[in-house]
Amino acid sequence: MKSFSTCLLVLVFLAFSLVPAAAQELTTGTITGQVTDLVGRPIAEAVVIVVSESGTRTTTTDANGRYNVPFLRPGTYTVRVEASAGFTTVIKSDIAVALNQRVTLNFTLEPGKTETVTVTGATPLIDVTSTATGTSLKYDDFANSVPLGRSFTDTYAVAPGVVSGLGTGQGNYSISGATGLENSYLIDGVNITNTGFGGIGAYNIVYGSLGTGVTSEFLDQVQIKTGGFEAEYGQALGGIINTIVKSGTNDFKGNVAWYATPRGWRSGYTPVQLETGTSNTLAENVNDFAFSVGGPIKKDKLFYFFAYNPVITLDSRRANVLGNPAFIPARAGVSVFDESQTTGFGGTTYATDPLAFPSATRDLDRTRRADNYAFKLSWQVAPSHQLELTLFGDPANGTNGPQRDTAPEFSDFASGGGESKIRYGSNNQSLKWSAVFSPKFFMEAQIARHAGEFRETSAVNDYLYRDLRNLLEFTRGASSYNDPTLGLQPLQVTPVAPRQGGVGFITNQNDTNTVETLKFTTILGRHELKYGVEYDDISYQESPTYTGPSFNVQLPISDINGLPVDANKDGVQDTISIPTRGGGTVDVRNGVGGDPAVAFDSANRFRVTRARLGPEIPPTPSKESNLFVQDTWSVHPRVTIKAGLRLTEEKVEGAGAFTLPFATETVQKETFPGSGFFVPTRIFTPGTSSYSPNSYSFAGNLAPRIGVSWDVLGDGKSHAYLNFGRYYERVPNDLAVRAFSNEVGISLEEFRDRNLTMPRTVAGGASTCVDSSGADTGLGGCDTIVPVFTQGIDQTSVVSGVKLPYEDELSGGYSFEVTPNSSFEVRGIYRTQGRVLEDVQVNTIEQTQNFYNGVAYGYPYDPFGGVKNVNGGKSTTFPATPFGAYFLANPGTRQVPPGGLASFPKPERVYKALELIYTRRLADRWSLFANYRLSSLEGNYEGLFRNDNGQSDPNIRRCTIFPTRL
After folding, report:
1. Cα-based distances in Å from 237 to 578, 629, 703
2. Shortest CA distance to 494 belongs to which of 296, 281, 317, 275?
3. What pLDDT score was predicted for residue 3?
4. What are the residue boundaries of the structural domains of the chain, listed by start?
């Protein structure tokens, strides 16, 4: 961080040694221009008065006749210019200033006259100095008249280049080719982007996007920046969504409304039918109650705005109507369904209902309520100083019920199976100080905090059981079952897979981000310098666990040669018993009995596919520092160059140190005696394994920005521009949790009973077993524990020299006025991925074969090892083959992870777009916004979200783990 600290000292020195002025602001706008006489001579000391519902601002022109009025709340203004020596007074009214907009307003005063000239509706349509691409919308003019929905995420979907992010869900749109987890979301300067995953508002790995309850009721304007970002902006490879909360004015205003979406007024849903079963939303009912009020506490000085907007949503879901093949055997009393035995499963439920999903005969209603609110206090402390306090939030809850989409697929839904209650949302605060220290020295300082959470409580505290026996029997071609009374009976088997018990995986979250910003602007002749610093203090906690009581994982003990240890010589391999944190996810399976055509004729196997070991992980911190400087240089009255540089440093830290009661290492083990074929095998021995959090600082990430704009005709009515920018990603803290904080658990262990107390063993699994000294027990072998698969045992390391991911963008366009109230623009955008960050893993060809090319049995394909065309590929013949440790790297660069002989292919993502935009502002009671974008997206790298499998683990997506070494 030394380089960053040095740059910060330089910034502070510049701030107080140069003579500064103004530019575009994040949550406000600026009116700027020049005052001249009829022959173009500048008029110095002219008084510029800007009036709106929020009060009056005054400034004077400099020796070049130029003026700047910054920190204007978006709205409509009247600008009056007066000069001594007998010049006319000119008034321009209905000047619309949008969010983060720079309005250039020039005045020509006629000498020798004292009359007042008033010009109405003179706001320029085109900002001839801009090199950015995007769209600005005023909610009251647009969202309330266009039927797009009340959430502010519904509104920005109209901008060019904003399309569905598919699996990233509500509000997380794909912008300019990036996935829905690569955008940045700002409200009144508060960054509400989820710090864990990069989505908007509440984002959970189970639920995906729960969106944000923020509605247009208390929002004023939104700006969708899709490209051409100035150096002030970063932390996004997609787009930047910038919006502001409404402010009070000198006029007292209020609003009371009720919006409803009755289920009977919507078009019907088309249910999806799957052989294995699924559930569908059949109806949705929304009630949206809105109240807002705003006005002056003291005219021209102190204003308030308050809004409260509860939204209640009721969804109805229903499962497919499918029969359960297990119903008849369970009712007949086939032993594997007998729950009077601890090894039985399903009889209590399956014998009483012929449907795989008993809820299929009724709708299950899910209720969620969001209590959205906003409060803003605006204080004009002095003519040159403003303070704004903003509070807003969207705390929400879902009542106990089918909160998960899979709830209707639980066979025990009547007793709460699969149901839960949730609490989510955020509370946000911002305090901003805008100051004009002199006509040429402006400053903006802000501290903002976002605090989000997600909590879920399962209605049933039991393991999540997924009954796969029907599916397995269907795969084997079973066509009968053995009735205890009637003997062999025909049976039609289908691949339906009911669930039972608790909801399974739960991941509660705390998501906070405190942002401190300090920005200055300076004018030196034709140069307008803007520079500042931003510091993000992030804390993200994810507490993953599974429903159900804790059980003991039994790790099989082996010696250094991989031989099973039977120290007490009882004929069974010894184990190390470790209690889990919470419960687990359990697959109910069965084997092949005497005849594959006979279903349910072998004992049940209860396979734990997920469970956690070790303590809960504390919050993971992350610190990001950004320093930027940007120069807007008026080379010529018609040509402007914007050059900027942004320096980003981010430190991501894991959390939580702990020790587990086992030791482990990987050894080479012969597949069977005399084969001469060895595979890596993980062994467990008595001892301890200590885990400590990792951390890494991504330093020295420089993002250049350079653009040029040209007022083609010199009249402010046409504009050509070209811009280049490099944008860096802010790494979400999901990586800190999953890669740097040691997620230790198991991904496979089999038990004989549903309560997970009796591990499965292989009778005579080893012909040689040893005692604690390593000597043969002399028993002719022993029964072995079915292999246990662990995860997170090896800690993730970082390849030296890793840097933040970035992409480069080249954009340009041409716009012109068609009429005094309309404009047309043509844009082109080219983006290419320059570097990515992923966890990588290098495995030998043998490891890849053993994991994927054995018998198709297990998780995810062949967990028991096995080599294709060796001994028939029998999984139980070979020991489980572990993967090695993960390394965080920049795949496709010269960095080669340890154990690799070559790097990975270079990740590629190339986005090309051509846009056509026609805009007609509101005049004569109508407006029009139309756009068309022709685009293409190509490459081998999708981004931070995988739509092929729905994985939302940014930068640790497991896409670069199998480069084989020949």
Report:
1. 43, 20, 12
2. 275
3. 47
4. 2-124
813 CB-contact burial (10 Å; exposed 0-12 / middle 13-18 / buried 19+):
buried
* pLDDT (mean) for 531-552: 96
Which amino acid is located at 597 in the chain?
A: A
Q: Which helix (H) or strand (E) holds 155?
A: helix 152-155
Q: What is the pLDDT of residue 800?
A: 87
295: Cβ–Cβ under 8 A, 6 or more apart, which residues?
Answer: 248, 249, 250, 251, 252, 253, 303, 304
Residues above pLDDT 90, as percent of the chain:
57
Distance CA 565, CA 775 (A): 9
Q: So what's the pLDDT on residue 882?
A: 60
Q: How far apart are CA 116 and CA 79, in angstroms?
A: 13
Residue owning tokens 């992350």: 622
pLDDT at 856: 34
Q: Is the dihedral of CA 61, 66, 72, 78 positive or negative?
A: positive
2-124 maps to CATH 2.60.40.1120: yes
Average pLDDT over residues 712-730: 94
Q: Are 285 and 263 in contact (CB under 8 A)?
A: yes
Strands (E), 83-218: 89-97, 102-104, 107-108, 116-120, 133-138, 162-163, 174-175, 184-187, 190-191, 202-204, 208-211
Q: Quick check: 880 and 892 in contact, CB under 8 A?
A: no
What distance in Å separates the CA atoms of residue 787 and residue 682, rounded to the nearest whole number?
A: 10
Q: Residue 18: exposed, middle, or buried by beta-carbon count in 10 A (0-12, 13-18, 19+)?
A: middle
Q: What angle do CA 822, 824, 826 make, to 5 degrees?
A: 165
Helix and strand numbers, DSSP H then E, in the chain: 8, 58
DSSP letter for 406, please: T
Per-residue pLDDT of 292-330, as tens digits, reads: 999 999 998 999 999 999 999 999 999 999 999 999 999
786 secondary structure, DSSP code: P
β-bridge partners, 916: 826, 932
What is the predicted pLDDT for the residue at 852? 43
- For residue 101, how many other CB atoms are within 10 A of its CB? 21
| Structure confidence at residue 611 (pLDDT) | 97
Q: What distance in Å separates the CA atoms of residue 782 and residue 795, rounded to the nearest whole number?
A: 33
- The span from the CA of 558 to the CA of 565, in Å, is 5
Q: CA of 950: how far to CAs of 83, 168, 206, 276, 910, in Å?
A: 64, 8, 10, 19, 22
- Could you tell me if 161 and 224 are in contact, meaning their C-beta atoms sit under 8 angstroms apart? no
Euclidean distance between CA atoms 934 and 914, whole angstroms: 5
**Per-residue pLDDT tens for 880-919?**
456 667 888 888 887 666 655 456 778 899 999 999 999 9
Q: List the single range of 139-153, 584-598, 750-764 with lowest mean pLDDT.
A: 139-153
Q: How far is CA 48 from the centre of its chain?
A: 46
